[in-house]
Prior knowledge:
The complex is a heterotrimer of chains A (927), B (166) and C (87). Chain B is α+β, with helices and mostly antiparallel strands.
Amino acid sequence: MTGPSRNAAGATLRFTFDGKTYFARPGDTLAAALLANGVALVGRSFKYHRPRGIMTAGIEEPNALVTVGEGGRREPNTRATDLFVYDGLVARSQNRWPNLSFDLGAVFSLAAPMLPAGFYYKTFFGSAKRWMFYEYFIRKAAGLGNAPTEADPDRFSHRAAFCDVLVVGAGPAGLQAALEHAEAGKRVILAEQDAVLGASLIRDPQELDSAWVEATATRIRAAGGRILTRTTASGYWEHDLVTLTERLAEPGAKPAHGLAQRLWHVRAGQVILATGSIERPIAFAHNDRPGVMLSQAARTYVRRFGVLPGKRVVVATNNDDAYLTAAALRDAGADIVAILDARPDLSAAATAAQAAGHPVLTNAVPLSVDGARHCLTKVTAKVDGQTQSWPADLIAVSGGFTPVVHLHMQAGGTLDWNEAAQAFVPKAARQNVTTIGGAANPQPVHPVVPVGNPKKSFIDFQNDVSLADVDLAWAEGYRSVEHLKRYTTLGMATDQGKLSNMAALGRLAEKQGVSIPEAGLTTFRPPYTPVSMGLIAGASGKNAGAHMRRIALHDVHTQKNPIWQPLGYWFRPRAYPQGQETLAQAALREARAVRTGVGMTDVSTLAKFEVSGPDAAAFLDIICATTVSKLAVGRGRYTFMLREDGIVFDDGTVWRLAEDRFLLTSSTGGADRMATHISYVRQYLCPQLRVSAVTVQEHYAGIAIAGPKAKAAMDALIGADAPRHMSTLPATIAGIPVLVLAASYSGERAFEVYVEASHAAPVWAACEAEVTAQGGCLYGLEAMEFLRIEKGHVVVGGEVDGRMTPADLALDKMLNKAGGYIGATGLSRPALSEPGRRQFVGLEAIEGTIPEGAMLVSAEGQSPQGHVSAAAFRIMDGGSIALAQLTDGFSRYGEELIASSPTRGQKARVRVVHPHFYDAAGERYRD
Amino acid sequence: MTDVTITPLPAAPLHVFEIWSNPSAVAKRFSAAMGYDLPATGRSGGTEALRLIRFEPTVWLVEGDVAPLPAILGDDGAITAIGGGIVRVRLSGADWRSLLMESGVFNAEDPAFAAGCSASTVIDHVNVRLHVVSDDVCDAYVPLSYATALLHFWEEASHGLVPTHR
Amino acid sequence: MMQITCPHCGPRSQSEFVYGRTVDSVVALDAPADQAMTALFTRTNPRGPDDEIWRHTYGCRAWIVITRHRVTNEITATRAVGSEALP
């Protein structure tokens, strides 16, 4: 009998793997449970579909990747070594068809000579048609697991935390450090990625044992420390901020409270890294097969899980640690048939092992292994230059130890080369971080030169990269470690090169003829181990991050079944279809109601600022490019604002409510930008002004009533004479104080009623009753667009697109002639007055319907001279019209052009006209 | 078992009180008229009838009857109404601090952030202004347009909170 | 995610702030045209510390000046600007 095994006692957790039922002991990882049940074949490699087994006992596992869970909880590419079995766990192997034992993909192994590193780039040469053909097959064959398609039913949380000391790793060093700091009165957080504390102590108790671990943890908690298990420090960011990913349920399991994982954002006073080191493999031919395992992993399976990974064992090492594995395996009943020590002389540990009866060979390096799909059968080595073989079902390999320095590097630290350990260790730290324990002091090793066939000696197991691929990259001229990485893809799989980086560097250094530290290192980037996308999204996952903002009267509008429109972050009614109306029909009806009778709409989202104080007028003369200070009390006017470079960036209205009090409105979409701009000017550029500029965007709800009957409606609502156009009047509606502004966006006589949002509902109800009584209706954003386009009003984000000056928009006559406003100096730049600028014009269709966004050309195939920023129809008379930007448009009225949208296959013949299609003289505003 | 109750409070008047010149003189006038000092940054002060909470260097949030304030300000500042755009949410119970750590960046678990303290921060992309009323009660001032979304977030997040340590 | 010590609020997360511009790109209101445009469109862009203005938008809403090392993100100074404030 060969292969891994364990007696069945205590196995009470039921799980399935590839549909077959097995039992596990509580505390087993899936890997341990599979080995215990004699399952050694667990996957197929990425490119060549080679049979793969379990190589490690930790997060660095490259081969044993499974898909666990079902439906929306399914997690592909889960390492079986980092997954704790729970009752009902469902796991499946990946990257094989029809099954693991008989995988048709194995044919790629035969094609291996054609598929070395970089083969994919070479497919780009030659005809595109041919590439499209084999790309189809490559795409099907590529990848490991399949992503789930159902929505994740669980929640993810992001939580901030602050502490004095964050300790990463609960091995002996980390536990001790956490204890000392906690008992010294510091706020401590201790994070451990395993389900249990102790790390290396679980595998090698030494003088300390599980009682010490328990007692230490109890003392840490008693001193107020927070201990988190199943928690990985995934990234070290700026100013000692470390993110921790905490699993509250194992992959695929249903979590308590519906909360699957938590992302901690920890701001620490200092960080202590007790992250230990990861063992390295040795490269030899077929070193990727089931039955090839890292030495400390083999020991872990014996000591922690009671599993015997093999019965006839070869141990291959270049250091003393593997002798502990030989002893542990023999104690568990295995037959150690050979210990291959790459060192020329017997160390003390080797001598002791020999004295204990182990067959120790010096100058011995593994050459190759033979095996079937599921198991190893033979190990061949070079001993003093001679070839020797042994029948074996397990080879436990130790090529040295690589300190886990990822977080130290992410924090901006530097590395030192430890020649004795042939490893990089932390040198200078740039943030408040220290590394202790095994990560700072790796064991000494003897460098091993691989002797097996380079084509079959794998260094990156997950991406199927061999030593020969490194040699090939060199032969093809790739010299730097960055190019080596990307050309061969080594280090780029989900294990991020944890087992492969050093071997690759060693080979590269050899080729370059330099030492390993001189060959360089690629950058360590977060996350340290893979992180679920759901965790990164957190609570935002369900609504893509940004909350939708609701208007004060949202529920009132909902009663009327509008078509809702997301506008920036707001939801606003686009139209209120009646009966079976389409959007277009509803919008046209609503627009016509405004033109012929009266309509009512919600304008609450507009930016609004209440500006008060003796210097309020002077302040607004700085912000606005039109003259504000000359406004009489009770009057208002249109205004626009410039950037410092003279470009129009927003527009709105300004109203003088009192000598020293103004209301400024501006665009919804630019509200936050305008608030920032106003505060910048106020606080930074002119802090000496006596002015208060307060954002009241949400304090006031806004209702617009527009149409030839609007005045009659307003008169009735306020019980007084409604103000004349561009005047303001405080009033009451339904007993509630309101501010009435006579302004028009639609081109009809119109009023905007501003009321404190908490009292908006009764005012809305009163307005709606009056509008209905006048035979009018509600209108939404769509109708609003039709109305303003016909009137020729520019909109921020449309005609005002960040490139237009006031002159380009035909607004220059409104500029404050005294200057002194922001943008005045920018406007003086000669280029802004030169010919060849885009200018704001109107278009009417001669033939066809003008597509919004179309390019304006003189003839098909010519370069665009402008574009259509907004398209609509004449509301009463029909006919396609549009607003546009056109090069030198002001001198081209009457010219015929083509408005072309090739991507939509639409075009129209158009004539350039003035943009005011409706009531250019403003007659409609006069009572 | 997490212990936090989330209660939107009814709408109430809210103003901003801003000083743009002669702050020391205004402060003296205020103390003389009201019998207590204008609160420092990060603090609140006053009574049920009139409470001021300071989040900004030159601006105080004012709850209650602002009638006495314009005279105190004179030409050195202004009062502006903003209550319509704010929803006050009362968080009560032993776990209000750990609730505020969810999707937050501010250390609400700091014991120094205690009754009478104020802080403005961002929680789940929303600007939230906090005022600690007592050991077990903290009020959050939330923009009206985001209130529904934030209340929903808090309801969900209140299940499975990690309690505050120490 | 940096930590920025606001002169009014103390140490706070970068998420509460919005970057404004470098101090050397500030255009004074009364700056002559050529000076203004030079300030707007050129930067010293040092590979070292520089002065920047940020706004504590989600905090006290005040503009502050930060001296930040543009490679290491080390912040060596922060100071208040704006009109005189009470303590």
